[in-house]
Amino acid sequence: MNPIFANLPTTVFEVMSSLARETGAINLGQGFPDDPGPEDVRRKAADEALNGYNQYPSMMGIPDLRNAIATHYKHWQGLDLDATTEVMVTSGATEALAGAILGIVEPGDEVVLFEPMYDAYLPLVRLAGGIPRFVTLQPPHFRLTEEALAKAFSPKTKAVLFNNPLNPTATIFSAEDLALLAEYCRRHDAIVISDEVWEHVVFDGRRHQPILGLDGMRERAVKIGSAGKIFSLTGWKVGFVCAAPHILKVLAKSHQFLTFTTPPNLQAAVAYGLGKDDSYFEGMRQNFARSRDRFVAGLTTLGFDVIPSQGTYFVNIDIAALGETDDVAFCRRLVMEHGVAAIPVSAFYAEGAVKNVVRFCFAKKDSTLDAGLERLAGAMRKAA
Asked: Which residue from 202, 254, 253, 198 is spatially nearest to 223, judged by alpha carbons?
């Protein structure tokens, strides 16, 4: 068997979700909402499945969706994209990431990775023959520094894998951070593969800034988005890839031999959804922010040290103040003894792991969050 995959442990999300199922615990670990997603978008997908076209669509995505993606990003992020040559549809953002990495990275190329990071990044880089160079981000701010970038970049740097907003930390990189990263990419002639799936799930009046839109980055950036995150339909697996024509042409060939295409009814529904009024997107953010605030208030009242959440479905706590030094052991006790599943953030590090941060998902109904807080109160009483 290929050791890149054969030697991987079972993903921490599956481990914690399995323990939650076995013990009847409240699952605040894996990142999916309780809500079924917008009904009109789901009905559009159902109608298209019954009455629309169900044979192979274009490998690049149906024209309606590619046009909708370009229009949507023009409206929300000021990007001027050619839907025909700079936009592609994939079967989810993870497929988009795989296609981008396999299309860009050659054996021996160095790839800069920022940890904590989505767990698919490192195996895919290694599958492509890339050599990972890690930048370890530290809580509570998880900021980029010139010193760290200087150590990670080299003449062999081919690509950078970047996630903004950042899962699992729930932080958004500042304009200064983005400018610093762009400077290093230009200086080293590196392509940044920018995982921006949480671009619409941002709070407190923030607006997402795509790195593709920065000076000098249009020719060296790949922007990846996710309909699943935008519409809280995580099982749909419809991804977006935006890049300059000379890059997208290669990524399309990689995509051709991964999934080739994506269900046309889902594409039609997503095209419809992207054209929804601004009030939908603003309302979605407000609803998630309200859930965040409810859960954070409960955690704070219980005495947890909460790290601010600027976006995504997640909020983190620092367990060092509780005298805890092992987030994996803490999460295992939490699910086995107190009936709440969470995620140890050390699972998102490849080296230099931070072991005092634990992630919760707040994209749940009030009743689920309140029940989780009630059980966490028991954990705090025992710790005291």
From this structure: 198
